[in-house]
């Protein structure tokens, strides 16, 4: 029987991307079924991405039936010029000032470097929590490309110079993104665990 794993998200774009990232290789049998639920989880105030993700998955476990395998994902955008800010708070900055406002934050800085970080907290059926993290270096640029996925239009990864995430094909983005790196670690764990 294929195990169900719950992804706590209400973001359809994230769900679609994560399903792509965790899909079995062509010809491989699926070892788990990914389902999602939208639970309103507390946003703890911390600069520690691991602490935020660990808190969220622990809270999700209290809402879901006992023995449910579940994971949460938290993504941060860390500006070098601000010593890592906005970091975990980027969602709130984006909501208030939009992509242009994030770019304006760095107007007085020569250093436009940034790091995108995704932290996945997975709680297995026994309740043990595992943390996986992926990182991608890049820089902040004026918005280019689609604006339908957060700050993708202002993040230009080092590994794909001259294109923002928003300008890249999904398959190309998924080869280098911080999310794909974090979920590759989760997928490896899931396949070794079963």
Topology:
Layout: E1 3-8, H1 12-22, E2 32-37, H2 49-63, E3 69-79, E4 86-87, H3 90-104, E5 113-123, E6 129-140, E7 155-157, H4 170-176, H5 178-193
Parallel strand pairs: 1-2, 1-3
Antiparallel strand pairs: 3-4, 3-5, 5-6, 6-7
Helix pairs in contact: 4-5
Description:
With about 190 residues, the chain is α/β, with parallel strands linked by helices. The protein is built from five helices and seven strands; from the N terminus they run βαβαββαβββαα. Strands 1, 2, 3, 4, 5, 6 and 7 form a seven-stranded mixed beta sheet that branches. Strand 5 and strand 6 form a beta hairpin. The protein is globular and about 55 Å long. The termini are close together.
The topology string of helices and strands comes to: EHEHEEHEEEHH
Strand content: 25-35%
The main sheet comes to:
7 strands, mixed
Enumerate how many helices there are, as a single number.
5
GO cellular component, one term: nucleus
Subcellular location: Cytoplasm; Nucleus
EC number: 3.6.1.66
GO molecular function: dATP diphosphatase activity; dCTP diphosphatase activity; dGTP diphosphatase activity; dITP diphosphatase activity; dTTP diphosphatase activity; dUTP diphosphatase activity; GTP diphosphatase activity; ITP diphosphatase activity
In short:
The protein contains five helices and seven strands, in the order βαβαββαβββαα.
Q: Can you give keywords for this protein?
A:
single chain, Maf protein, 33% helix, alpha/beta, seven-stranded mixed sheet, 194 residues
């Amino acid at each position: 029987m294929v195990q169900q794993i719950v992804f706590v998200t209400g973001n359809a774009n994230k769900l679609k991307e994560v399903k792509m990232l965790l899909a079995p290789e062509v010809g491989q049998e699926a070892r788990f079924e990914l389902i999602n639920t939208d639970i309103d989880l507390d946003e703890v105030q911390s600069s520690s991405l691991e602490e935020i993700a660990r808190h969220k998955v622990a809270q999700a476990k209290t809402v879901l039936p006992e023995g449910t395998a579940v994971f949460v994902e938290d993504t941060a955008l860390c500006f070098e010029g601000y010593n890592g800010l906005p970091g975990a708070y980027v969602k709130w900055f984006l909501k208030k000032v939009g992509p242009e406002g994030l770019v304006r934050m760095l107007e007085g800085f020569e250093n436009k470097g940034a790091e995108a970080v995704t932290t996945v907290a997975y709680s297995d059926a026994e309740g043990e929590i595992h943390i996986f993290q992926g990182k991608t270096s890049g820089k902040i640029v004026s918005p280019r490309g689609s604006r339908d996925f957060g700050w993708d239009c202002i993040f230009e990864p080092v590994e794909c110079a001259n294109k923002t995430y928003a300008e890249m094909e999904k398959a190309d983005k998924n080869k280098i993104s911080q999310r794909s790196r974090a979920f590759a670690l989760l997928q490896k764990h899931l396949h070794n665990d079963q």
